Each structure stands twice: as structure tokens, then as C-alpha cells.
Amino acid sequence: MTSFGRLLVTLWQEKNRTMYQMTGFGLIALVVFTIYGLFNGGSLSIMSHISMVVFMLLTIVLFILLARDQEHVWTSNKYRLIPVSDTKLYLANVLATVLTFVYFYILELVIMVICGISEISSLTNIGNGYWPQLLSGQLLMLAFLLFGWVFISTIHFVIVSVSAFLPAFRQRLIRVVLAIVIFIVVLNIVNWLQKLMSQILSNMFSSSLLGVSASTQLTTALLLGTLYFVISTVVLSALNVYLMKRWVETSTKAA
Amino acid sequence: MTTLLTVANLTYKRNLKTILEDLNLTLEPNQIVGLLGANGAGKTTLMRLIAGAATSYHGTIRLGDQGTPAERKAIVSFSEQVAGVNDNRRLVNIADFYDHVYPDFDMANFRKLATDLGLGLDQRFNQLSRGNHQKFVVAIALSRHAKLYLLDEPFNGIDSMSRKKIVSSIIEWKPEMATILVSDHHVTDIANILDAVAVVKDHTIVDQKKADEIRENNGQSIEDYYESFYAEGETDND
């Protein structure tokens, strides 16, 4: 049997190829736009702004590409025939996606710091009280992205599972209609859970944080939001693993 | 003799259609078995089920004492494991992937086998001809030290020279005590190397016999034996 660690590293390395390509495109775009800015009378300080815009767009693109790569694993013989349980493959794939994104985020930060080196002093002026909020904010973003990837897998798995019970005739049309219906249904369920959760959290929040400073309240709110997304991710993941084991089979298309 | 593979009362339905029904098959170790049947008879589906790529079936599939899909994947090498590779990668990089994720993959064997088959490892996957594509698929499958090899139509759409090379590789590289189940609908390609055959028709295995038994007892060639199942003018069943 293949070990979890070996599988995780291999999947991570595969996903990193997409990430390196994106980072490469980002750097090229950064250089091109900076040169363009300099020719139009700007100073080098515009690099920090350009890098922010470029990497913000790249973050969105990378999210989509990593989702595509993640979904490819579920229905590809190349991955599904690896001798591991479906639970291990699921965990390794999702974790590899998250690790790739974290790696990209660190590279992105390093590049942005280098680009904005002239404005680094403003960063050091941030008071100690803001760091917990910044970190909590990053955690919330990561939890939100993780939830997004898992949510996409849920939609994918439900479509594959349901379509297995429908006639082969006009499968493409059936899948499009199913995708829309399932997206709305799952979104409504998640929305309902979110309302329920936020009700519980706001009750906790209002009663336990009376008299606490605004920054602590904000940090707590961010952490509770993170917790909400983590719990939702765990619930959807349990459903995903179940569907994967029972109904999600590999594609029969040739390589 | 011990049994390597036991498939009992296997039924598989998909998209409101019965693909396999109440199918039974047993394979012994150290054999080359032909899985014969018309296009769409269910040969690929049966291999997918044995390999663990398809899971929503009724019945039993056991390989020795290995019953779960993950356990079976560890000892079955299925040619379809190449499906889904990145088309733009070099063959050596693709082989590296298998070397990383399959504990039984032998990179040295792969290099020798690829050389035997005349494959350039620096070639990109999407630049391979149909024949070289099939050779690569077979090379990857046979480079694992598995107990059961499932080769799904390895001679489909390739020229006679490539066919001969693949056939000789199968004979040369088959590990002792391992069994190879090779599916085909052109029996002549593989008839000479088969120890036994199983015929898939009407969603099930309609007959399973040793090659010698067919030749000696029935006085038939493997081709005639296979064609006798389709002699009533039947063609593909889907």
C-alpha cells in the first residue's frame, strides 16, 4: 500500500507545477506593467500597488485551477487506482491543494514585500494589537477557500452519483440541469446551516464578550467565522468520502 | 491449485442499464488468460471492477484473501492506470509518478522494457503514435510486481509490428506466478500465447476453458471456439 505521506508529497508536487506557472505569469505581468508605468512617468513605488493587483487576480485564478486539478483526481484512473483507501486519497488531495495554496501565498507575500520594500516601515508601525486580527483574517480566508474547494467537490460528487441512476441518453444536458439544481439545493442547505450557526455564535458572542475591547471582539469574530467554515468543511468532507466510496467512479474515457 | 481471483455473482448496473449480470469467473496463478467478447460486451467494465476503479456492484470480488478495493489495487496492475496522465509530460516524468506512488513499481524494469519496445523516454506523451501509446501503457503496467495484470485491448488499432513487440514483452516480462488477463476482440492477435480463455457475452461469462482443452478435446482453434459463440449472426450488444 502507498503511504499517506508519499501520496501527499506526490500530489503536492503535481499541484505545485500549476502554482509555479501562475507565479511565473504573475512575475512577468508585474515586470511588464512596472516597465509600462515607469515609461509613463511613474516611480518604482508603483510596483507595490501593481504586485497587489496582479497577485489578487492570480489568487482567484489559482483557486479555480486548483479546484480543477482537485476534481480531476476524483475521476481519473491515474489517481484512483493508487493503492490507498478513498478516505486517504481524499484527505491527501484536499491537503495537497491547501498546502499548494499556502506555499503560493508565502511566495506571493515575499514578492509583495520585495516590491513594497520602500513602504516596509509602515508595516512595522502596525501596533501589536493588530497582528492577531491580521492572522485571524488570514486563517478565515484559508478556511473559506478550503470550504470552497470541498463545496465544489460536493457538487461534483452529487452530480456524478445522481447521474449514474439516470439514462445514458443526453447525459451532458442532464448533468448541466443537475448541476444547476444541485448547486441551488446545496447552497440553500449551507445557507440554512450558516444562519443556524451564526445564531448560535452571535448568542455566545454577545453574552461572553461584554466589556471586551473592539479589537478582541473582532479577532474573536474572525476566529469563530473560521471555526464555522472548518466545521462545515468537515461535514461536507464526510459526505464527500461516503459518495466517493459508493458512487463516484473513474471516467471511462481513454488517456 | 489455489485460486488467484474469484468473482462470484457479480452484477453491475449503470445508467439504468445492466452491463454485467450474475457473472462468475475464477483465475489461477501463473497463466495468460484471454478475456474475449464483442465490443461493448463488458470486458472493460469487468476489468474496472476487478481493479477497483468501479465500485457500485453487487457480488464478490476477491484476489486471494484481499477483498477491499484498496487491497486489490495493491496487487492488480491495470493498463487503464495510465488514463488521465498529463498529455504534455515526458514519458520518463510520467514513469516517475508511478515510481513514487506504487511501492511495487520497478523503474529499472520500466527502462529496460521501454528500451525493448523502442520507446524514447524523452518523448512527450501527446507525441506518441497509437502503437507507441499502447506500448507505453503495457510498459507501465508490466513494470509493477503485481499478482494480476489486466491489459485492456492492448492491440487496439495498432500495426502488426507493434503487436508482435507487445506480445513478446508480455511473454518475457510476465513475473512467475503472476496471471495476465488480456482482453481483445481480435483473437488471432493473442491466441498463441493464451493458457485459457473466458468469453463474455450477454452480460456474463458464458464459458471459461483451458486453451489445451479447446484444442485437444474440442478439436478447435481458439478463434473457432470464440467465433462459435457469435455464430448466430449476433453483433455487438451495445
UniProtKB/TrEMBL annotation, chain A:
The chain crosses the membrane at residues 20-39, 45-68, 89-120, 140-166, 173-194, 214-243. The keyword Transmembrane helix applies. Keywords: Membrane, Transmembrane, Transmembrane helix. This is Uncharacterized protein. It comes from Secundilactobacillus collinoides (Lactobacillus collinoides).
UniProtKB/TrEMBL annotation, chain B:
GO terms for molecular function: ATP binding; ATP hydrolysis activity. The keyword ATP-binding applies. Residues 5-227 form the ABC transporter domain. Keywords: ATP-binding, Nucleotide-binding. Coiled coil: none annotated. InterPro entries: AAA+_ATPase, ABC_transporter-like_ATP-bd, P-loop_NTPase. This is ABC transporter ATP-binding protein.
